[in-house]
Amino acid sequence: ASANGTTTGNLSTDGSAEVVSGGSVLTGDIDAGTSLFGRAVGTFSSGDINAGSFIDVRSGGLMQLGALNAGGLIDLRSNSDIEIGDAVSGETINFLTEGSVTGGDLTAGDSILAQAMGSASFGDLSAGIVNPSESPDAAYAVRLAPGGALSTGSITAAGDIGLYSEATLTT
């Protein structure tokens, strides 16, 4: 943990990775055998992230992440914009931001959920189709609710699809 900011190269562990800063975080790729727990008061920026279990990152500022791959949940929350590459999750991919969210193709074993005060833009979305979750609580849904425009590629879901936008909606 750091009070002023953390800058690292690539991080790799067979266990969990915890990256916490009272300032900003800048890392290369992160490879965690189990989970990634990341917190930054400022920006959180990294290369690609792989985690055997879950990816849980929160930032007070801009969040910029490369491609994401997690055996379980991917949970991203920011007081600013979130920008990621493609993401694959064995369970749910969740975004919550006071800014806008931009992502590549997203594939979830369970659901894809996004709430943003700004706009939301994604590539193709798949929920519960590829390697579906075996959780008895799985909904296999896509639910997207930005305050601004919403744009996606193709959407496929084994459950419900719910799209809401206060502006333009394009799929």
Summarize the structure.
This protein is an all-beta fold and 171 residues long. The protein is built from no helices and 25 strands.
What would your notes on this structure say?
The structure is a single chain. With 171 residues, the protein is mainly beta. It is built from no helices and 25 strands. The chain has strands spanning 5-7, 11-13, 17-21, 24-26, 30-32, 36-40, 44-45, 49-51, 55-59, 63-64, 68-70, 74-78, 82-83, 87-89, 93-97, 101-102, 106-108, 112-116, 120-121, 125-127, 142-146, 150-151, 155-157, 161-163, 169-170. The strands form 3 sheets. A 9-stranded parallel beta sheet has the order 1-4-7-10-13-16-19-22-25, with no helix packed on it. An 8-stranded parallel beta sheet has the order 2-5-8-11-14-17-20-23, with no helix packed on it. The radius of gyration is 15 Å and the shape is globular.
What attributes does this structure have?
mainly beta; nine-stranded parallel beta sheet; eight-stranded parallel beta sheet; 171 residues; single chain; 25 strands
List the helices and strands and how they pair.
Blueprint lengths: L4 E3 L3 E3 L3 E5 L2 E3 L3 E3 L3 E5 L3 E2 L3 E3 L3 E5 L3 E2 L3 E3 L3 E5 L3 E2 L3 E3 L3 E5 L3 E2 L3 E3 L3 E5 L3 E2 L3 E3 L14 E5 L3 E2 L3 E3 L3 E3 L5 E2 L1
Parallel strand pairs: 1-4, 2-5, 3-6, 4-7, 5-8, 6-9, 7-10, 8-11, 9-12, 10-13, 11-14, 12-15, 13-16, 14-17, 15-18, 16-19, 17-20, 18-21, 19-22, 20-23, 21-24, 22-25
Query: How does the overall form come out from the CA principal axes?
Result: globular
Model regions low in confidence, pLDDT < 50 over at least 5 residues: none
Give the quaternary arrangement of the chains: single chain
Order of helices and strands: EEEEEEEEEEEEEEEEEEEEEEEEE
The proportion of strand residues reads: over 45%
Alpha plus pi helix count: 0
